Amino acid sequence: MSKTLLYSAPALITFAVFGTEIDIKIILYSLITLCVLGGISAITISLVAKKFSVYEDPRINDVADLLPGANCAGCGYPGCRGFAEALVKSSDISEMICPPGGANVMTAIANILGMTASKVEPIVAVVRCNGKKEYRTVTNEYHGAKTCAIQHQLYVGESECSYGCMGYGDCATSCKFDTIYIDKITGLPVINEEKCSGCGNCVKACPRKIIEIRNKGPKLRKIYVGCNNCDKGAIVRKFCKSACIACGKCQKVCIFSAITMENNLAYIDFKKCTLCRKCVSECPTNAINEVNFPVKKKPENIEQTEHQKQAENKEQPETVNNNQ
After folding, report:
1. Which of 132, 139, 158, 126 is nearest to 241 (CA)?
2. Residue 90: other Cβ atoms inside 10 A
3. Does 108 fall in a domain?
4. 220 in the Ramachandran plot: left (φ > 0), alpha (ψ -120 to 50) or beta?
5. pLDDT digits (tens, 9 = 90+) for 161-177
6. Which pTM value belongs to this model?
7. 310 found inside a domain
8. Where are the alpha helices (DSSP H) in 114-156?
9. Would 123 disulfide with which of 51, 182, 198, 308, CB 3.0-4.6 Å?
């Protein structure tokens, strides 16, 4: 017998395959049933998709394309896509800011949405700790996971300052813009102000909250207290030579009410500070940092200049009045 034999009868069409007869009608009915079920399912899915479809504003994609795409969450939303959706749905974007994009990005987004963007002041992260290795006394040595978060949970630190930087670089690891690194000499984080977007990831990563977001200021100039220790002056001086001792001299010399004293710690409000630098010279422990300022002239040079002027005046010949 051959492997396949096809024959026909008046009322029966069958296949003979390996000696087994199969009615072709069964195959046709099965195919037709599957096609009908597939068509019904496709129509049902299409109707359900239209019924429960969610409209998405096409401007969301346009706004998302303008954002940096860093997904740093500095705006307070879960990624750039989430921020784009919030911008399109909002009726007022004046208080909404993309730290990495800055004013240029917010202006472009406002043009797409037909709104007005507020003026965005450039911001940057600063480290409020002056506890260099030369200023602090190391009383023990830590052996364990080299992360600030874990060490902070275990004990106060190698210098017994429970407020200072531990120097293991959780802030640098959290930075998506490669802006922060740990200085091997000082043991403190260094922030590249040119690259810093002010997203705030380092602020969240620091377990001791010594990193703060502040305005970049004119010509990148800033004045802030480089200490976060709330202990009393006599105690904090045992841990760090450059700590704030809450003497209050900086507060007294500030005529703009920019400095407040709370919990044995001075704080400079960058919105009120005029960058006069009087508080810097008044601080006995050099706890106040002045950044990107020109070097002050020494008093000796000023006195020397005055003496030179007096000498030049003496050398000038006196004018004689001929009318006398």
Report:
1. 132
2. 13
3. yes
4. left
5. 889 999 999 999 999 89
6. 0.69
7. no
8. 148-154
9. 198
Task: Specify the amino acid at residue 130.
Answer: N
Give which of 242, 215, 213 is closest to 228, Cα–Cα.
Answer: 242
Q: What is the pLDDT of residue 19?
A: 54
- Tokens representing 165 are 């930087």
Amino acid (1-letter code) at residue 186 = T
* C-alpha to C-alpha distance for 84 and 285, rounded to whole angstroms: 47
Q: Output the domain CATH number for residue 164.
A: 3.30.70.20
For residues 324 and 320, give the distance between their C-alpha atoms in angstroms, rounded to a whole number: 9
Any domain includes 246: yes
**What tens digit of pLDDT does each residue of 90-102 get?**
988 988 889 888 8
Q: Could you give the percent of the chain with pLDDT greater than 70?
A: 85
Tokens of 112: 């797409």
> In which region does residue 44 sit, left (phi positive, over 0), alpha (psi from -120 to 50) or beta (all else)?
alpha
| Per-residue model confidence (pLDDT) at position 309 | 53
Q: What pLDDT is attached to residue 8?
A: 44
Q: How far apart are CA 31 and CA 53, in angstroms?
A: 32
Please name every residue paired with 215 in a beta bridge, in sequence order, or none if there are none. 123
Half-sphere exposure of 127 (CA within 13 A, CB side): 28
Q: How distant is the alpha carbon of residue 12 from its chain centre?
A: 80
* Token output for 264: 């044995």
- Domain containing 106 equals 59-113
Tell me: do 219 and 148 sit in the same domain: yes
Asked if the structure places residue 311 within a domain, the reply is: no
Q: What does the alpha-carbon distance between residue 316 and residue 67 come to, in Å, rounded to a whole number?
A: 68
Q: What is the CATH number for 106?
A: 1.10.15
Query: Residue 302: pLDDT above 60?
Result: no
CA distance 225 to 129: 8
The string of pLDDT tens digits covering residues 108-149 is 999 999 988 877 788 999 999 999 988 988 888 888 889 999
